Records
---
Amino acid sequence: MTDRMAIALDNVTVRFGALTALDGVTLEIAQGRTTVLIGPSGCGKSTLLKTILHLVTPESGVVTIDGAVMDARAVNVMRRRMGYVIQDGGLFPHLTARGNVTLMASYLGVADADQAARIETLTALSHFPADAMDRFPAELSGGQRQRVSLMRALMLDPEILLMDEPLGALDPMIRFEMQNELKEIFRTLSKTVVLVTHDMAEAMHFGDTVVLMNEGHIEQVGTGESLVRHPRNDFVARFIRSQRREFGETIR
């Protein structure tokens, strides 16, 4: 039995002027699994994530969510099925943590009692102190701001969670703690997760599937272990070697 595909990209090309960010990318992302996009800076991994959300419109090719085409006509409905977390959290500084988390729910008219119940669930899930919900982002630590961003993405209980280097701006100790917390959250929720990172050790920590990209192409798809032990070409081998040098024995 094959995994059901939550997201599929079919021959997707994205160009920004003379720059080709995605060049005929075809990829299937399994439902209920964590897929990690990795590669050097400028390889197209963040563009791919934004293309799934239709924040970037492909020049050619098709993106489908559960078989439905993600285009301008469907985007408003489809986005409500997806949560999005960016590297620095992207919080509105003039809103409290509570205001940031409930922003879309309030816009959509979700009842206050339902919002309060959802916040109670999310603060427990993300280990965020409930008494800090009325603080502004500037009054929160980096790890707390990222937890608020995660709660905001999960507020409407989306089926798909898209995360663009969510831990990249954190110091090493907080990053390590949040890696373990996030993995447990992914396991608990069983959502489809697509996560961007530049760190192979992090990719192996989270990823059921790892997608290594380079210059707008996909070089190899598989488990982290298969990429490390069975690189399909010289680029993959060189990328893994460079990560080994940076992270030492973390990648064996």
---
Amino acid sequence: MLIRSKKPWDLPFSEVTPEPAYRSRREFIKVAAAGTVGAIAASVVGRADAAQDLPPLANVAKSSYVVDPKVDPINSYQQITNWNNYYEFGTNKTDPAAYAGRLKTRPWTVKVDGLVGKPGDWAIDDIIKGNQLEERVYRHRCVEGWSYVIPWVGFPFKAIIDKAQPTSQAKFVEFTTLMRGSEMPGLQYAGIPFPYVEGLRMDEAMNPLTLVVVGLYGRMLPNQNGAPIRIHVPWKYGFKSGKSIVRIRFTDSQPRNTWAVQTPNEYGFYANVNPTVDHPRWSQATERRIGELLKRKTLMFNGYGEQVASLYAGMDLRKYY
């Protein structure tokens, strides 16, 4: 008989905040007033509302990958879509909500190549239709010290690995994001090299937590959150999760990810959430949840240590940061 052990995310899906609650504008403004960050985000509510009236995604399954809502309340749709890092649209947190509406996400293809048995150009709608979508409520931690709790909609990245059939020589996977100057004003002044590149080790990419994201709150992914397809790796800082992906390349060498190239003394390849290792310019020991006044203690691996710590057994996580 198969005995399934209880995992930290195994909570009744009924405990996830219902849509009317997390989409309430009035509740958002009330919560946002509790913190400076939230108050700033509230100032652009309506901008994203008007631009991102997105249709629901069909056949989204209920997932057991959720957090305890009593400990980690889900952030509102307005908070998540109005306070973003997305340098292609600007370096201010409110720039993506202001400017990402111009991004055209159809037609869209993702090139899958490198050390794979089945390379190809995959249309985004075929990717969505060809995989069972599920909603997973994950913590999201930014290297700058702020955090969210987000109900992503997507499917495990392992599904792409299985379809592409990487060879035994493939040790890493590299993600390249869109660079389209006519629709992305931040490309002109953000001060980092484009296109944005990120990557994972193959065992990290195959971990069940690594998610291909195509939606939020049961709806299609808003532009400012990385439409139409992005990656989310919940035990790593947010910059590891590439947005608006146009290429997935399997390779035998470690990808030169953008921030490690731009500022190697501040950002490494791994970017695991580690509160014991400070950023050179600030502490990582605490974080500010969007909409909350008080700071929280940052959890090792963002609270996902039971699922991922074994990936780094024997590694010096101060050296491999």
